[in-house]
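Late entry, evening session. Most of the bench is empty. Finally got around to the prediction I had been postponing all week. Sequence below, unchanged from the version circulated by S.P.
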Amino acid sequence: MAQGGVYHAGTFSCVAAVIRASSLLPPWAPRDISAPYVLSQRVHLWRETISAGSWLEIDVERSGAELRVRALGSRHEQPGVHPLGGELTPDSLHALAGRVKAAAEKGSRLEPQLAQQVQALHRALFQGDIQEVLARLREAAAGGPVLLRLMLQETDLQSFPWEALCEPGKDFEFLGNSASLLPVRGVRSPEPWQPREVLGAVSLLAIAPLHPHALSQLQGTLHESLSSGEIEWLEPLTGSRARRAPLFERLRRQPEPHIIHFTGHAGLHEGWPVLRLADEEGEESWLPVELLAQQLHRSWGKGPLRLIVLDACEGASPGPLASAAELLTRTAADAVVAYLWPVRMDVASRCSRAFYRALTRAAQQEGDVALSLNEARRSVLAELEGSAEAFSPVLYLRGRDPVLFDFKARRVLPPPSVATWQGTSPPSPVLAQLLEQPFSLVLGDRWEEESPILRDLRNRLQGELTQKTGDVPPELPLITLAEHFALRIGHDELDYEFQDVFGQTDFMPPLVRLLARQLGAGVHITILRLPLLEQAIAEAHPELTLYVIQPSSRADRHAVIMRRQAGERRWERLREVPAALDTEREVVVLRLCSGYLPAHHFSRPLITEDDYLLGIRSLASLLPFELADSIQSVLSLRPILLVGLSQLSWCHRMLLYQLFGRRALMRGSVAILDPRTREKEVWEEGRGLPGETGVRALDSTDDELMEWLEALAAGRKG
């Protein structure tokens, strides 16, 4: 079919014939497809059309004092241009918009004469060829809604409430609450559109620079969605945290939200939209929206952010150049919800509640932002007796598909109730979500339970060095102290001291047992010098075959591998490295710092500075290529739970780089940190991490982490 990567035109003709015979080509496909370029372009456009559903794009443009309408359908229909009519001029639209806004300010419905005017505009917009194309698109949608994408270039056209247009002969069939038409304001942008797969909760970052009470009100509004686990409430920004420098600092680090909800004030400065942040030294602080959009694009442009909600007065009202909503949609997010006019607080709350419930509810397979906003407007109209306030929230959309979130593989886990939680703090939904899917554990040595053993070793090394060489600085890190000992007294003596301390303990902390119960088949890593993790896994999962891999003490040899077969208690050392391991059904534990293997086999551990410099080896140097590659792929495709590590420890950073190189840890990875180290921001901003990409970080003592693990395990059983 192909020679040297070149396809023959005859082949494409055959393929096109088969596709057409199978009724796969759309009706606009050319009857003579013989050129590969033509076929590939048409099929690409067809796939794009199918994936985006049915849509109708309408351009309203000014031609002198006249307004004209042109359209494009999702099946490449191009109806003729038609004028809106002599009575519908920019000035008359401006006056009509003012009357709708006045009704919204009073919280009243459209009075009869005004209702007739918006019906007349609806009739003028959807007439002739456009009405016929729309009817066909509705028929093709098979009962589903058609996206109506309004392309509005003029400022006065953008400020008009097109969502208030009403179908003639109907009282409440407005575009803004229609079940068959979903109006959005289209934005031209060089940025791509793509839906985001969401496996758990939709995360929301709330920003309220001047109104901290608005955060509690929004949280109360979203109570049902938060309680069900459909939405995750990230730590909000308000007060001093919502000043320019802290805000931009937050936008550079994890966790990244799916949605940003801004509550505050919007305005214009020299024609450009601005948002008000927290005051700086008593002075008002206004941030150009263009700068905010640039920062969001730079920091989170490839991340999960898809939607921004501007709960700000007139955030969708354009200045001479552009509206805040339009600027943010161009580069920062796929969609922006904003308000044309100020609305009452209770109206905004009703709208937010209905909107977020419709967008994120667990029972659906996708999050459609246009459909959700129409449902929210319908809710406001129903609850407030047809108030025109329902037409203030509008949607700016970058692409031609309003589905922002893909929920097909989603599993919603309700977070533990704060009211019924008896521990220090409730488990984080971030940790709960990680534990609900296959993940890899990296277990470090910076944790409280192992410290008595390390203190004993430190005291012995310190004492012998002091006796032999005089004073030794008391605050040396253990690896530096061990290095001094090996250089001055000898590595064999260091091995003896290590075995005398570590080899005579039956130490098995409860935390390791709890972690082991959470683990399944796959690859896990430990840098503990005792075989605690593998023993705990063997106890918790006797039904799984378990392999333990440790670097050989000889650089010219591959790793030492031990195996415990499923259902057995005996450990055996394998003389040959297996050709492959089934990480979907078996457990692999990598012991990268050596020490004691199961069955009390001793190997010189990494404990001095030189040990770490020379002894931490990559998987490629530790194992044959095929085996190393299969293990590496598991680590690359699963989120990581990191416990007992510190970015302030160079040996821990070296360990992570040997494991992951420059590849970032998979999204959803979580680091559990000792609160005393105060390094949460370092992890979340990705400083020193592979790929310089941050991970979610939680401060927790061992006792808190054990409480969380026990509660989450009990919740799953319940």
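Two things to note before I forget:
The longest helix spans residues 451-469.
The chain is about 40% helix and 20% strand.
Will write this up properly tomorrow.
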